[in-house]
């Protein structure tokens, strides 16, 4: 299957050293606003909709390598010679791949709820799970963060595996970004991801090649990419800081945004060589 370039919808904010922000599955560039709204006050943030996600429509099948070619084209398009890459879930996998493919251009990595050998422990999904999730999602769209909906349906739905802190603020993030991202994710994007996972994706043996500083952040109760698999990744990275947050899961940036952003800020202060400040 030959490579066909994709025109990526890209959200750019701020000025300064560039930070490439890569979303997960399902996701979009807008779902990274929890990071971009904060970081763009000091840096330039670039948050694309990956191929087959959000508004980056693409007809036909593709594979994971096509995402990397798209991102390399994006760096060329915006004349970015060096950047920090912040990736959440699938975005973190792509961030590590970029660091392996373009080591001279990747100054640092922030990897959130991700792994170079992803493993999950999600329980089987029942009909009741799907019904409760549908009701909770619709009610949350109509009235974001409604406590009655959270207590009645949200805590009994599949949201319970994505988050641990069932707060109105977390549900407002879900209403604002998660549902639209889910509906806009193409079947080709889903197939590309799960084909790679089923093939036994494992980049742990190659991580020693990544020389730039990295920060790995995980939710202790993550069922989609377990904290233990994120920890395993951190141990294979040469210059890596690791932190695991209790009482959080895969959507931890929407559960504890202030704490997470503060820890990223502190890490950047401790590694001024990344951004040049």
What does this structure look like?
- This protein has 277 residues and is of the alpha/beta class.
- The chain folds into 2 domains: 10-122 and 185-275, Alpha/Beta hydrolase fold, catalytic domain (Rossmann fold); 127-179, no CATH class.
- The chain is 43% helix and 14% strand.
- It has helices at 33-39, 64-77, 90-101, 127-142, 147-152, 159-162, 168-184, 187-198, 227-236, 252-255, 257-270, 272-275, and strands at 10-13, 18-22, 44-48, 83-88, 106-112, 214-219, 240-245.
- Strand 2 (18-22), helix 1 (33-39) and strand 3 (44-48) form a beta-alpha-beta unit.
- The protein is globular, with a radius of gyration of 18 Å.
- It starts with 9 loop residues before the first strand and ends with a helix.
- The mean pLDDT is 96.
């Amino acid at each position: 299957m030959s490579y066909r370039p994709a025109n990526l919808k890209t959200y750019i904010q701020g000025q300064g050293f560039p930070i490439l922000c890569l979303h997960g599955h399902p996701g979009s560039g807008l779902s990274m606003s929890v990071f971009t709204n904060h970081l763009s006050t000091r840096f330039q943030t670039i948050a694309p909709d990956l191929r087959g996600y959000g508004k980056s429509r693409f007809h036909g099948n593709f594979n994971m390598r096509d995402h990397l070619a798209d991102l390399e084209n994006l760096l060329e398009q915006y004349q970015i010679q060096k950047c920090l890459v912040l990736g959440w879930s699938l975005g973190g996998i792509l961030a590590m791949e970029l660091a392996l493919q373009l080591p001279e251009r990747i100054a640092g990595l922030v990897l959130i709820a991700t792994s170079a050998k992803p493993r999950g422990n999600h329980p089987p999904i029942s009909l009741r799970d799907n019904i409760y999730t549908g009701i909770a999602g619709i009610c949350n769209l109509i009235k974001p963060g409604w406590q009655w909906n959270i207590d009645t349906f949200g805590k009994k739905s599949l949201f319970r595996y994505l988050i641990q802190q069932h707060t109105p603020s977390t549900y407002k993030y879900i209403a604002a970004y998660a549902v639209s991202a889910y509906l806009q994710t193409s079947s080709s994007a889903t197939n590309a991801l799960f084909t790679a996972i089923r093939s036994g994706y494992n980049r742990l043996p190659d991580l020693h090649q990544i020389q730039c500083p990295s920060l790995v952040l995980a939710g202790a109760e993550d069922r989609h990419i377990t904290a233990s698999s994120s920890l395993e990744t951190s141990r294979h990275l040469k210059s890596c800081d690791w932190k695991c947050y209790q009482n959080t899961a895969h959507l931890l940036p929407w559960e504890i945004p202030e704490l997470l952003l503060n820890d990223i800020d502190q890490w950047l202060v401790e590694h001024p060589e990344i951004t040049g400040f």
